[in-house]
Amino acid sequence: MSIALESPDQPEVIALIAELDAYQDGLYPPESRHALDLASLMQPKVLFLVARDECGSALGCAAMVLNAGYGEIKRMYVSPSGRGQGLGRRLLARLEAEAVTTGCERAMRETGPYQPEALALYGAAGYERRGPFGGYRDDPLSVFMEKGLVAMAP
User: Fold this and answer.
1) Chain-wide mean pLDDT for the chain?
2) Which H or E run includes 16?
3) Residue 68's closest CA among 33, 102, 34?
4) Would you say 35 and 25 are in contact if contact means Cβ atoms under 8 Å apart?
5) Which residues lie below 8 Å from residue 89, measured CB to CB, with a gap of 6+?
6) What CATH number is associated with residue 105?
7) What b-and-e string marks burial along 69-100, b requiring 16 or more CB atoms within 10 Å of the CB?
8) Helix axes 87-101, 116-124, angle to 10 degrees
9) What SS3 class is residue 103?
């Protein structure tokens, strides 16, 4: 497995994002989904990682939007064929490490209550629940989390 910074504007990656959208469409109404489109993911202030298997096939992705004072994790997804191998944990750790190199000191995440695997992943990685941040409003279909990254710096 390899994980690297890549452009999201690749057919395999666009397919992964479409899988994620289809999955979330079945869980949450549109007003409770806060996904970034492809153009937003291509902005300079976005870190975008792709995880690939030994044959080069994209199995997962994760993004972080770098804001003043924090980075927001977006578009974190591992395809069903890539699950059960610790790939989500590795993507998250690499995303945090990349964020630290930019001077980012805090990671934030908005996810949903109907994604227990995601909540468990973030909890195991040291994320703690908090209130809404940025432009988010309190929503029963949103779970807000954060983690300080300063201690990770070399």
Assistant:
1) 93
2) helix 11-25
3) 102
4) no
5) 121, 124, 125
6) 3.40.630.30
7) ebbbbbbbbbbeebeeeebbebbbebbbebbb
8) 50
9) coil
Instruction: Give the total number of structural domains in the chain.
Output: 1
Is the pLDDT at 117 greater than 80? The verdict is yes
Q: Give the count of beta carbons closer than 10 Å to the beta carbon of residue 62.
A: 25
Residue 88 corresponds to which amino acid? Answer: G
48: left (phi > 0), else alpha (psi -120 to 50), else beta? beta
- Per-residue pLDDT band for 87 (boundaries 50, 70, 90) equals very high
Q: Which domain holds residue 16?
A: 2-152
In this prediction the pTM is 0.92
- 39-78: pLDDT as tens digits: 999 999 999 999 999 999 999 999 999 999 899 999 999 9
